[in-house]
Amino acid sequence: MKQSSADRGNFASRLGIVLATAGSAVGLGNVWRFPFTAGQNGGAAFILIYVGCILLLGIPGMVSEFIIGRHSQTNAARAYGRISGRRLWKAVGYLGIVTSTIILGFYAVVAGWILQFLVASVSGQLSGDADAVADYFRTFSTHPWKPCLWAVAFILITHFVVARGVQNGIERVSKLLMPLLFVLLIIIVVASCSLPGAMAGVEFLLKPDFSKVSNTVLLDALGQAFFSLSLGTACLCTYASYFSKDTHLLRSAGEIALLDTLIAVLAGLMIFPAAFSVGVQPDSGPSLIFITLPNVFQQAFSSMPVLGYVVGVLFYALLLFAALTSTISMHEIGTAFFIEELHQPRERAAWVLTLVCSVLAVLCSLSYGAVDGIALFGRPLIDFCDYLTAQIMLPVGAFLTSIFAGWFVDRRLLHDEFTNQGTVATGFFRAYRFAVRYIVPLCILLIFLHQFGVI
Q: What are the b/e assignments for 88-102, b being 16+ CB within 10 Å?
């Protein structure tokens, strides 16, 4: 029996929709992947290409998931089957749920590291040179139980937000965290850009260098656009099931993409000016935020130690907020599934997902170095989960979603949802449908092949 919108809960405002859904997209990748990729691949030239990829791939992909979620008004697994009338398509929804659960499991490990580093920043334990910070990170991350404790703690924080419901939990917390994240970014950007020699870092990020543009850069921009907007995780589909019928889907997708891109660019303006001011060339990945940047901030603000301390604490608070907005959305995907498939109240359903992800998080944490042998196909479990979801499950899920929306969903249904039953302008519908039928699947196929070095 189909639940009513009132039974399931809805977002109460358009602002809540945009901030919650943007929060699901804004995550650690905005900090440790986008700035480095942009800086190494032409700066502003890469950003311009990235924006083009958002228009070609990101927004049509988001709108497709929005349509599926809002029309079905149910969890991701049921949504595809309800629209198509075929059980086979439910597999796409199940794939998204499993993908998000696995991601939450290993993502919580990294989020737990952030919690530890926030505490260490507040207590002043990160003072010292780069080798000392690296040693601190290595000692902590391979500890047999401390990272496990922090990872589970982070999942519990996420749990208590989701357990409070759509409006009282997810929407309310998103309305608090997203503005705070933006304010913290601005504060650190201003401090970073005020350092001597900082403009070289700004130029590195924002000066277009079209000589660096190549086929590889184009594919990197395409991949960044894909991963940055959480396509293929079932998050957008799940959140859209809480949208009201008068939500303007195309405009909401554009606003979410704009916020996500703005925060990614600001992250670059936070990192590169400070790094260039002390002559450090930042890398990407966990080493950037757990080893390189603590040392960069210490060196850059060595003449103003109080400001350096404040910036360091604010930086890890910012990362904490970015991680939490993402984990909330991933948790909600599985919680919504258990509510409707197991017919359980929200709090009990949330506990089911929390326990599953906590077990996975502990195993992933232990596999990072504390315990040998927790591995699959020659990779530590945490690396295998990352590889499996990023390189296989996400692209496959997003590809099948685009095929489903473009070729199997009735054109009238697409048109009615896209235009809110004809109440909003239809000028972009033909472009959207063409994109979701041809451009989006082709783009995802190119990303998939590029990841494996085929092209």
A: ebbebbbbbbbbbbb
Supply the DSSP string of 388-410, one letter for each residue: IIIIIIHHHHHHHHHHIIIIIS-
What is the reported pLDDT for 5?
A: 40
Is residue 139 within 8 A of residue 344, CB to CB? The reply is no
Nearest alpha carbon to residue 93 among 79, 73, 72: 79
DSSP-assigned letter for residue 421: T
Residue 379 pairs in a beta bridge with 376
Q: How far apart are CA 12 and CA 82, in angstroms?
A: 25
The helix/strand/coil state of 380 is strand
Q: How many CB atoms lie within 10 A of CB 453?
A: 6
Place of tokens 């290595």: 138
pTM above 0.90, yes or no: yes
* Percent of residues, the chain, with pLDDT higher than 70: 98
Query: If you average pLDDT over residues 77-83, what whole number do you get?
Result: 91
Q: Residue 389: what residue type? A: T
Residue 3 has pLDDT above 80, yes or no: no
Residue listed under structure tokens 């041809």? 438
